[in-house]
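PT: before anyone asks, these are the final sequences, not the draft ones from last week. 227 residues across everything. Please model them as a single complex and drop the result in this thread when it's through.
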Amino acid sequence: SQQGEEDPQALSIQEGENATMNCSYKTSINNLQWYRQNSGRGLVHLILIRSNEREKHSGRLRVTLDTSKKSSSLLITASRAADTASYFCATDKGSNYKLTFGKGTLLTVNP
Amino acid sequence: EAGVTQFPSHSVIEKGQTVTLRCDPISGHDNLYWYRRVMGKEIKFLLHFVKESKQDESGMPNNRFLAERTGGTYSTLKVQPAELEDSGVYFCASRLTEAGSGNTIYFGEGSWLTVV
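LR: through. Structure below.
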């Protein structure tokens, strides 16, 4: 089964708009993390939310977690062209924190 | 503080050749992970070290892949012999085992491998 599936697969918005990406998973988790990958670059950690948390904020980022629906959302407010990247959610459920990734959402912010 | 560093950043080799990728985790991090993303697919776990010991190598695709972490510091991932389907980006990540650390896993820039 596919763990950590993001939707939409691609999202194109204008600068200043908000971007919302969703992630669904199938099994119980300990933590869910969001990462960003700029084209040709590495994975940058954005935010971690624990299974007993429902919402976290970091700057222009807001993450929610609904364990009953096994889903999470990442909201980027007041988007900028520099936010253009692929965004991945990743879950872990074991003591070794092995991550399971989704296929990602490609976000394009047009200036 | 330096992040996770990987070398080489890009490598192009011929089918049948050998490539060795290196990862230096964040200093002091006892956990080290290898992941890879092949074209069009999701990022997949390869293996996990705690210090010099392999904790989980369930994601290693086959015996052409060999990972080591002698001394519990840097790690190498060797592909021998390389096949076309090995092309992709290989990510290394590290994490510190510490109460209250938040379990954040930090990734490197990746080693982009092309097998021709």
